[in-house]
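Section handout, structural biology tutorial.
Before the tutorial, make sure you can parse a SMILES string by hand: atoms, branches in parentheses, ring closures as digits. In the record below the ligand is fe (ii) ion, and the chain has 219 residues. In the tutorial you will relate the predicted structure tokens back to the input. Do not try to memorize them.
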Amino acid sequence: MTAPQAPTERIVTGNHPDRINFTEMYVTHDSFRRDLRRLAAAVGAGRAADPRVRDGWRNFKRQLHVHHTVEDAWLWPRLKGLVADRPDDLALLAAMEAEHAVLDPRLASVDAALDGAAPGLPAEVAELTRVLEQHLRHEEEDALPLIQSVMTPADWRGFARAMARTQGPRGAAVWVPWITDGMTPADARRFLDRLPAPLRVLNRLVWQSRYRGRQLFAH
Ligand SMILES: [Fe+2]
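Predicted structure of the complex:
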């Protein structure tokens, strides 16, 4: 088991040499939460068929798929190797994988309800929100402290590289403005300051306006 961690600021500028900075993990989780709030609002307002709402939902699914694919393929296997003699920690990692698997049928149920093939769209969105929130909190409260205690900042950079490889350049062009969508200007600045300068410039000149033009979730 790991010692409880003090409350963490979610966007932390700068990198400590000995501590992993989880900013990118937190802001990604918060973007999933924001998207599901917007989906629920759109559904509640009778705008589920709006192509911009559909586009927002497709993008949400893609971001979630990339995030969980890299966690399942890169992060949990490496952690398992680091805690191989610690049954409680292995159980936690098994729970992370199981919670990812439980999300797939929830996504499919929202898809079916959106397509009109199944009733109860608001209830399906609420259930997906409940299941995802439970998973994100479990990961933030238990898995991130475990990662902090057994991995190094260099290990974590390997995870970030795996995420960037899976996203690819076209993925980054969406991920960066998707993350800052709805942030206060001060938070957006603190997040963007963590990016390599060329990506910040690309985001300001190209990615941001292209993303805004899509008006995801008709927001
Ligand atoms: Fe995560």
